[in-house]
Give the backbone structure.
Amino acid sequence: MPKSILLADDDRFFLEAVGGYLQEQGYKVRRARDGLEALKAVREEPPDFIILDLIMPKVDGGRVCRYVREDPQLRHTPIVVFSALAARDIAGMPEVSADAYVAKGPLQLVAKNILAAIQHLETYGRSSHLDEAVFGYEGFRPRRVVTELLIAKRHADHLLQQMSEGVLRADEEDRIFYANPPALAMLGIGEPDLIGARLWEIFGATNCGEVEKTAATLRADPKAQRQELAVDLNGRRLKASLAPLWDNEAYAGVLVLLAEVGGHRRPEKT
């Protein structure tokens, strides 16, 4: 039975070209165009190898690595990261726990280096020293723009984590792909369980109908304004402000701000 690979990148041409090459080498390949799709795919059908870009929409490669390593069913899955950053810079990132690193470059060369990384892991396993598990870095120069993007992202993430309000981001299909620590605390849900859930699912049976209806209204009307809801959850009364996000004329999802109102409430007796 062929070994299976999950290949994640937001470049459709790259996915088709590299995925096709790996299929020609005898592997079964599934493709994902962002980190949220990648997480859904690995949870539904755990692959033998995960290959992913660091810079992806919704959930970046670093967070995909973290969620995989925190999952008891997936934590031992070999991960190959390919990026325009130097391998040692990537390895120094706290969220990234990859087993091999491939430098971005010409497509044909990257495809061969990804295959070499997979074959290396098949032979030596996940215990290889970093210097023995890097491919395509001869004469490599990190791309400054990628470094700057990661620095800006870290800064934005830090600001969101310091906010007292809860912050959620959901995509065009109302799937949550970001939650800051205050939001996790207010909702009483662990981050791995929250990411990928439908927005209304996290507010409990009492509130989910109203949240789903509000999200549908925001999605259907480009002129819709921010909507505010009061929800009772886990003994708390929360104010949820839902703001639609549009990219030109395409619905891009919703931003949710959560604030606790009037302190904790005791859970109602049933």
Notes: The chain has two domains: 4-150, 163-264.
